[in-house]
């Protein structure tokens, strides 16, 4: 069955831009049935926008739409410090959220529970700080960090890894983690605040 191009569908390129993903990743999502799509007579995928909206809503919700004619504040000192936590443990989501709210009460904190949702949210939010667990469902944290580093739009984002893995267990991920501060989950309360303070200073500069 084919569906004509129209406002109810979008291309894989348009979907990838909205999700902050590579076009190939969107194509794989279509192949897995995560997004509903049809092919045009020319063989191009057209993705149903309602399925894209449903996928986003199930993984953290959509970014609020700006009023017509209004401009969203861009990255930088003109907006609150924006943080994105990508962590699948509800316990550590809550703990890190408490630390962030205590240290940075004016910050804007968003939470994703898996790597795929986190990548999509990162593309929409362009956060100042990304707090990422290494072991994540969907996309592991090391792969996620490597992907984020390949996108120029995240060059200004500060990465912080939070993990329950000890140094020996982190060995397979050393290349991805090079130059990234790593906080062991047992030391979150003491080691995370100084890193958040550094991010706040960099944001205000």
Account of the 3D structure:
- The chain has two domains: about 10-60; about 80-205, Response regulator (Rossmann fold).
- By secondary structure, it is α/β, with parallel strands linked by helices.
- Mean pLDDT is about 80; it is low at about 60-75.
- Helices cover about 40% and strands about 15% of the residues.
- Strand 7, helix 7 (about 175) and strand 8 form a beta-alpha-beta unit.
- The strands form two sheets. It has a five-stranded parallel sheet, sandwiched between helices. A three-stranded antiparallel sheet has the order 1-3-2.
- Helix 4 (about 90-105) crosses helix 8 (about 190-205).
Question: Span from first to last CA?
Answer: 55 Å
Query: What would you call the shape?
Result: elongated
For the biggest sheet, the summary is: 5 strands, parallel
| Percent of residues in beta strands | 15-25%
CATH architecture of the largest domain: 3-Layer(aba) Sandwich
The total of beta strands comes to 8
Mean pLDDT across residues: 81
Oligomer: single chain
How many distinct helices? Answer: 8
**Rounded Rg:** 18 Å
Low-confidence stretches: 62-77
């Amino acid at each position: 069955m084919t569906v004509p191009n129209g406002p109810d569908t979008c291309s894989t390129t348009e979907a990838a831009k909205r999700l902050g993903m590579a076009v190939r990743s969107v194509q794989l999502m279509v192949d897995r049935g995560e997004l509903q799509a049809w092919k045009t007579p020319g063989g191009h995928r057209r993705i149903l926008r309602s399925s894209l909206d449903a996928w986003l809503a199930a993984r953290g919700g959509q970014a609020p739409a700006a009023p017509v004619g209004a401009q969203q504040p861009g990255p930088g000192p003109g907006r609150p410090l924006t943080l994105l936590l990508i962590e699948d443990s509800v316990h550590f989501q809550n703990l890190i959220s408490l630390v962030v709210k205590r240290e940075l009460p004016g910050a804007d904190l968003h939470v994703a529970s898996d790597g795929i949702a986190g990548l999509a949210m990162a593309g929409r939010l362009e956060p100042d700080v990304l707090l990422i667990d290494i072991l994540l469902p969907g996309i592991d944290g090391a792969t996620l960090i490597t992907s984020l580093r390949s996108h120029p739009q995240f060059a200004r984002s500060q990465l912080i890894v939070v993990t329950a893995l000890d140094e020996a267990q982190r060995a397979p991920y050393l290349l991805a983690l090079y130059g990234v501060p790593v906080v062991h989950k047992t030391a979150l309360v003491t080691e995370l605040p100084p890193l958040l303070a550094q991010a706040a200073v960099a944001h205000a500069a």
